[in-house]
Amino acid sequence: MVVHFAFLFHIYQPPVQIPPVIKQIVNESYKPIMDALNNHPQAKITLNINGTLTEQLHDFGYDDLIELITFLASRGQIEFTGSAKFHPLLPLIPEPEIKRQIKLNHDTNHQFFGKLYEPKGFFPPEMAVSEEVLSVVKKMGFNWIIMSGIANTLPDFPTNYISLHHNGLKLIFRDDYISIDCAFDKINNVDVFLNRLRYKNINEDMHITLAFDGETFGHHVKHAINNFLIPLFDTLPNRQDIKLCTVSEIVDKFPKGEKQIPRASSWSTMPYDIAHDVPFPLWFNPKNEIHIEQHRFFMYALTLIHLSTKYRESMDEERKRIFDNARNLLDRGIHSCSQWWASKRPWYSSDMILRGLNEVLMASVNAKRSIPDNIPDIKEAMELIMKDMLKAQNKIVLTL
C-alpha cells in the first residue's frame, strides 16, 4: 500500500496589506519555502497564489521571488491552481462577479508566470463553496476543485477514488484533521507526520490532500520549515510507502467514483455551523450585525457599479477613467479579510474592517461621478442608494 499525498499551499495577502507585513512574511515564509523546494528537486507542491499577492510582490521589489516560483514551476515542482484575484468569498457574490474575479486572477498570474500558469484545478478562497460556485468553476474549464473535508456528503470519505460532482467536476476534499494539526503545530516532526498519513489499515493505495495557508510555515509556526518541512523533503525520497504528488497527479492516478453534491461550507466551517445552517460563519453569520451590514454595504456598491457600467460607452474619456477606477476599487474592496476580522471568532480588527469599507465607499463615489450629466434620473437613483449605503456604514462604525 502506497499513500499518495499532496501539499496545497495557499499564499495571499489582502490588497490593503501594509508593506512591512509583506516584507516580514516574504522573509519568514515565502522565500524559505521556495528555497526548500529549490534545494530538494524531488519535492513538489500545488500552489495557489492569488493575483493580488503576485502584483504586491512585484510592486514591493520581490521579482526575484516571482522568478524563483517560475523556475520551480518550469522544473515541475510547482503546480498552480486558479482562484479569485482579490480573494472574495465567492458564495457571497453574484455569478458575473465570480467569473470576473477568476478571469482577473488568471490574467494577472499569466502576465507574471507566462505559459507555465495554466491551472487545471481551482482553489476557492477560504475553500468556500456552493452549488453556484461549483457551476461557475466547471463552466470556466477547470478539471477539479478543492474544498474542506466537511463539504463531503458521502458516507465514506473518498481516499481510494476521486468523487465527482454531477456536472462532471472532480472533487478533492482536504483532510481537515491532519491539515489542522499541522497548521496548529500539533504535528511538528517527520515521524509523527508519516505515521498519521498511514492511518488507514488497508492494502490498496490511497490518497490524502493537505491544504493550509502557506504563511503557516515560517511565519505563524516559526520552526515549521527548518524542523519539519526540510527534514520531510530529506526523508521522502527514501520512502517507498509514501509518495509526494501534486493534486493533479492524484486526480489523474485514482479512479473516478461516486457522485455527490457537496454541502456549502468553508475550511473554517464546523459541524455545529452546519447544524445551524451557517455555512460561512466567519464571513456571513446572521447573528453578527457587522456581517449583515457589510454585506448590505457591498451589495449597494455593486448595484452602483452595474448601473454605471450600462452607461460607459456614452462617457467621455475622463468619466471612463473615473469609472474604471471605481470598478478596480470595488474589485479590491470585496476581499474577504474585512469580514473575517469582524467575525470575533476569535479575531477582531476595526482597522481591517474600516480599510475594506473605505475601498468600497471610494468605488461607489467614483461610480456616481462617472455618470454623464445628461442622465439625471440615474444620478438621483444613485444618490438614494448611497444614502442607504451610508446608513449601513454608520451602523458598522458605531458597532466597532
Features:
400 residues, alpha/beta, 7-stranded beta/alpha barrel, ten-stranded mixed sheet, 15 helices, globular
Layout of helices and strands:
Blueprint: E1 3-11, H1 19-38, E2 45-49, H2 51-59, H3 63-74, E3 78-82, H4 95-113, E4 121-122, H5 131-139, E5 144-147, E6 162-164, E7 170-173, H6 176-183, H7 190-197, E8 206-213, H8 224-235, E9 242-245, H9 247-253, E10 256-259, H10 271-275, H11 289-309, H12 317-333, H13 337-340, H14 350-370, H15 376-399
**Helicity level, as a percent range?**
40-55%
Element pattern in H and E: EHEHHEHEHEEEHHEHEHEHHHHHH
* Structural category: alpha/beta
Number of domains: 2
pLDDT averaged residue by residue:
97
Q: Assembly state here?
A: single chain
CATH class of the largest domain: Alpha Beta
- Unreliable spans are none
Number of strands: 10
Q: What is the straight-line distance between the termini?
A: 54 Å
The biggest beta sheet reads: 10 strands, mixed
Basic shape: globular
Using only C-alpha atoms, the radius of gyration works out to: 22 Å
CATH fold-level assignment of the largest domain: 7-stranded beta/alpha barrel
Number of helices: 15
| Proportion of strand residues | 5-15%
Write the CATH architecture name of the largest domain.
Alpha-Beta Barrel
